[in-house]
Write a structure and sequence with these properties.
- This protein is α+β, with helices and mostly antiparallel strands.
- It has one domain.
- A three-stranded antiparallel β-sheet has the order 2-1-3, with helices on one face.
- The longest helix has 13 residues.
């Protein structure tokens, strides 16, 4: 089930308030936890942990509808 826009925004605020706990996948631009080694969405292993990039990406993702397909969508 697709999260409501307000839920996406709330998650984005949570991430933006703690950017040091997250990183942005260089393959699909998803935000994942800092300890993630392989992206669960695209299986990339390259990440950008710069807090500014994390905050910018959280704001971008939180302000639009979901566009990516995740493993949950395929199950």
């Amino acid at each position: 089930m697709e999260p409501l826009p307000s839920e996406r925004f709330a998650k984005a605020r949570e991430i933006a308030s703690n950017p040091g706990e997250y990183q942005v996948c260089e393959g699909c631009e998803s935000i994942v936890g800092l300890e993630t080694i392989v992206c669960p969405n695209c299986h990339s292993y390259r990440f950008d942990g710069d807090p500014i990039r994390v905050v910018d990406q959280a704001i971008l993702l939180g302000s639009r509808e979901k566009r990516s397909v995740t493993a949950e969508d395929l199950a």
